Amino acid sequence: MKRSIAILGIAVLLVAALLIGCQPKEVKPTFINIATGGTAGTYFPLGGALAEIWNTNIKGMNATAQSTGASVANINLLRDGKNEVIMVQNDICYYAVNGLEMFKDKAFADIRGLVTLYNETCQVVTLADKGINGIADLKGKRVAVGAAGSGAEANARQILEAAGLSYSDLTAQYLSFAEAANNLKDGNIDAAFVTAGHPTAAIQDIAASRKVALVNISPEIITAITSKYPYYTPTTIPAGTYTGVDVPVSTVAVKAMLAVKADLDAKVAYEMVKTMYANTERLKAAHKVGSQITVDTGKAGMPLTLHPGAEKFFKEAGK
After folding, report:
1. d(Cα 92, Cα 69) in Å, to the nearest integer?
2. Is this prediction's pTM over 0.85?
């Protein structure tokens, strides 16, 4: 009798152990804070869409999108360990990894690329009645050149330089996109540099109440800037992109991209890239530039060493 009870007890223990072993393992949460940009730009809605895609499709993922000062601020946030993924211009990443421009003597060697996303168009917006038709016409004008130390500010400075101008030739005001929109509407400035995927919310906001114009960048200036700075590419803003702008506008663009630190888990990085490309319809719904985000162009203009997780994805995709 005692022997039967003992055998039964052992059997119960074995069954219990088996059942415990069959329980699904608890997935350790992965916290990803995505640094985006201002709420009037393009990064913010796309960052929110990315967080939603990753949370929905990656087990244990807890991703959030954070509004920030955009590219330069995001590099510093990543360096300081305050964000795991950043949205950033490819030119700013080039400066960061090489210790140039605003990162002079502060090179960030541990930054890695995930993907390039879409063209970030350098747009010079003014009001139609200001008589500003080319970059040379900005001389003597009050011009918003982007937030101090931002990627847009670097673009403004380089475009002016290619046109033979500097900040000493105009009244430069360091304003965010939203601040620039409000000041242009109120007549406090004459023009503004905005670097973002088009259409850009800040410019749409101005066009809703005032007749706007976009400034053409001449072929000579485009040649000068692309020759000196290889991360720029010529681009055209189609007619009708903004209310009242019925002609195409010639300009230049840089690339938006995602960057991370070298020590991000390779499996996590791989899953983030894979699920992003599997859900591009959600990106298109967040912003029109989402249509440019494809596997085929995911390494175009990449200025950084790819993160191993991203490298694995592109290798599997044959890219």
Report:
1. 13
2. no
